[in-house]
């Protein structure tokens, strides 16, 4: 275990040197979100109200906790305190993945594969990863998935907290085993979310205004749909690239059509997830993580916004999938890590080329988004095959009973169910 710990310490030292500007990274200053935007929100939030009328505040109410968190370190200036806390969240996620890896079967050099995905994937995003609060949200999601089998109520509460920090962790509910586990996790998540939302609404004016702050967004220049306009600009498209709602977006003719198409694709993705859940007949120890990974990939590639920091969500979920080792998400996880490295090239290193829609910018976006699309397709196909196709084929062949400890559609609880799920997963992996 000393090697991944040493690698984590070395890479995170470099990240801290970057955000503290000891090392200069080419391109736009990614730390301005903390020193200007976050700190501005902090000054408003500390008065007991949300940033009302500020359309750049597009986050659920618990996001206030992340923005206010630097108050825990009053001896540091706001940006420095934020970076230190981001590094602390990084360390927590890493520790959880190490613990999950130690519990997983396999030889030592493979056992820490999930931790290595985190060690390598996070710094590939560059200083952006410490200059956004998404890493804190990802740490909450990693915690929820790693405790799900043993502490379903804790997992449900963590999912609710994550969803109220930045919505997407609600997708972690997609793959919970049917039966008691789902009832406990979903019920706890619902009660926790309602209680926290009510508390924020009662204590701080403007807690729910974020719901209306994205209605007129365009298509962000790094999204999959934006490639239409990057190419169209070379054929006379008359739209513009502007800073809008806190991100650089395309605005102009047909943007609403592409944005609507992205929404239709997101609805279709939800439909596929619903169909998968209804058809799935077997859960292994990693099915919940595999389903969450596939779901977040689907909603990332169909979104009209793919900000660079979104990649840390995928790296965290990929790391959990690999750490649990009973699924087959290894190749999609590798694609996500590679896509994260390409994301660093397009932002911040060559963001000017992306905004200008020149050959380099378009190439980087095609490669990065192509990797994400491939990862999404593979993750969904492998999830379907391991939970629907292969178990059904075994049942039809009369070999279903030969799988020792396999879990049925009702899922399971307790150590016996966990052991059975692991045994079933190893057999399916072969």
Characterize the structure shown.
Belongs to the glycosyltransferase 87 family. This is DUF2029 domain-containing protein. It comes from Streptomyces taklimakanensis. The chain has 430 residues and is mainly alpha-helical. It has one domain. Helix content is 64%, strand content 3%. The chain has a three-stranded antiparallel sheet with strand order 1-3-2. Strand 2 and strand 3 form a beta hairpin. Helix 7 runs parallel beside helix 13.
Summarize the structure in short.
This protein has 430 residues and is an all-alpha fold. The protein has 17 helices and three strands.
Record the strand order, biggest sheet: 1-3-2
Tell me the count of domains.
1
> How many strands in all?
3
Q: Could you estimate the helical fraction of the residues in percent? A: 55-70%
- Average pLDDT works out at 89
Query: Mind describing the biggest β-sheet?
Result: 3 strands, antiparallel
Tally of helical segments = 17
Provide the low-confidence segments as ranges: 400-430
Euclidean distance between termini CA atoms: 27 Å
- Roughly how many Å is the radius of gyration? 22 Å
String of helices and strands: HHHHHHHHHEHEEHHHHHHH
Briefly note the structural class of the backbone: mainly alpha
Multimeric state: single chain
- What would you call the shape? globular
Strand content: under 5%
Protein name: DUF2029 domain-containing protein
Family: Belongs to the glycosyltransferase 87 family.
Membrane topology: Multi-pass membrane protein
GO molecular function: hexosyltransferase activity
């Amino acid at each position: 275990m000393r090697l991944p710990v040493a690698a984590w310490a070395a890479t995170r030292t470099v990240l801290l040197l970057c955000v503290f500007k000891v090392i200069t990274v080419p391109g736009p200053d990614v730390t301005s979100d903390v020193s200007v935007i976050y700190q501005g929100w902090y000054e408003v939030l500390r008065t007991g109200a949300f940033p009302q009328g500020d359309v750049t505040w597009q986050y659920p109410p618990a996001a206030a906790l992340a923005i206010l968190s630097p108050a825990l370190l009053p001896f540091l200036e706001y940006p420095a305190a934020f970076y230190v806390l981001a590094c602390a969240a990084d360390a927590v996620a890493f520790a959880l993945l190490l613990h999950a890896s130690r519990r997983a079967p396999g030889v030592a050099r493979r056992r820490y594969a999930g931790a290595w995905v985190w060690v390598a994937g996070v710094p590939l995003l560059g200083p952006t990863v410490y200059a956004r609060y998404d890493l804190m949200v990802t740490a909450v999601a990693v915690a929820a998935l790693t405790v799900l089998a043993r502490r379903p109520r804790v997992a449900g509460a963590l999912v609710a907290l994550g969803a109220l920090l930045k919505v997407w962790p609600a997708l972690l509910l997609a793959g919970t085993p049917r039966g008691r586990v789902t009832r406990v996790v979903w019920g706890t998540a619902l009660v926790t979310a309602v209680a926290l939302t009510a508390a924020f609404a009662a204590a701080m004016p403007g807690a729910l205004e974020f719901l209306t702050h994205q209605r007129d967004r365009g298509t962000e220049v790094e999204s999959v749909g934006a490639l239409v306009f990057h190419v169209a600009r070379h054929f006379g498209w008359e739209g513009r690239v502007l800073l809008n709602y806190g991100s650089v977006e395309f605005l102009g003719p047909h943007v609403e059509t592409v944005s609507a198409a992205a929404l239709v694709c997101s609805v279709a993705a939800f439909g596929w997830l619903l169909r998968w859940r209804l058809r799935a007949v077997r859960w292994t120890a990693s099915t919940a993580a595999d389903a969450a990974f596939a779901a977040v990939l689907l909603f990332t590639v169909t979104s009209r916004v793919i900000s660079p920091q979104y990649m840390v969500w995928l790296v965290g979920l990929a790391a959990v999938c690999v750490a649990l080792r009973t699924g087959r998400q290894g190749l999609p996880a590798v694609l996500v890590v590679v896509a994260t490295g390409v994301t660093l090239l397009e932002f911040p290193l060559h963001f000017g080329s992306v905004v200008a829609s020149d050959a380099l910018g378009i190439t980087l976006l095609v490669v990065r988004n192509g990797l994400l699309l491939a990862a999404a397709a593979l993750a969904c196909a492998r999830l379907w095959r391991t939970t629907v196709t292969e178990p059904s084929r075994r049942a039809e062949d009369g070999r279903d009973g030969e799988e020792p400890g396999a879990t049925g559609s009702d899922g399971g609880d307790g150590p016996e169910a966990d052991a059975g799920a692991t045994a079933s997963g190893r057999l399916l992996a072969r």
